[in-house]
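Researcher: Next sequence.
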Amino acid sequence: MYRHFFKRFIDYTASLLRLLILSPFLLILSLLVVWKLGWPVFFTQERPGLHGKPFRMIKFRTMTNAWDAQGRLLPNEQRQTGFGSFLRSASLDELPELINVLKGDKSLLGPRPLLMQYLPLYNDFQRRRHEVKPGITGWAQVNGRNALNWEQKFEHDVWYVDNQSLWLNISILWKTLMKVFRREGINAADGG
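Model: Next structure:
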């Protein structure tokens, strides 16, 4: 109980301070998103949180809303722009997730939340990733990110659930900063 309270206190304080410090930068990014990609600024999607409970994850949008002649949204590849690709490669699209952390939907650290439709597909071991709040970054992200296959990601996620500690969290934060700075692990070797 104490560990969860302490982690929530750190999540709340750190996300609030980051949002305040980054607010001018976030405003500039928001204006650039509107200018380069259109409205709305944010992309939201329902994701599973603690114990699989749904929440709305917030990110900067990285694609246009381009439609074909029949009024259907174009495929992702055709709606992606250089600016959107830059936001993703620099992980800037994830900065609004600090709002989710502030609200208590997410933690700074934990397994990355996947799509809701995957919930029924998890086995008992994989389902354990939902025993903690999902995070902006986690053990799987600093140990391979998109280069890992699904089984490896789940193993890392559950390992984090069983071994989380202050020192592990500090290590993950440091490794995350280094990976973002170096832009490592953004895409898998097959381009995924």
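Model: The chain has eight helices and four strands. The helical segments are 2-37, 76-79, 82-89, 97-103, 124-127, 139-142, 150-163, 166-182.
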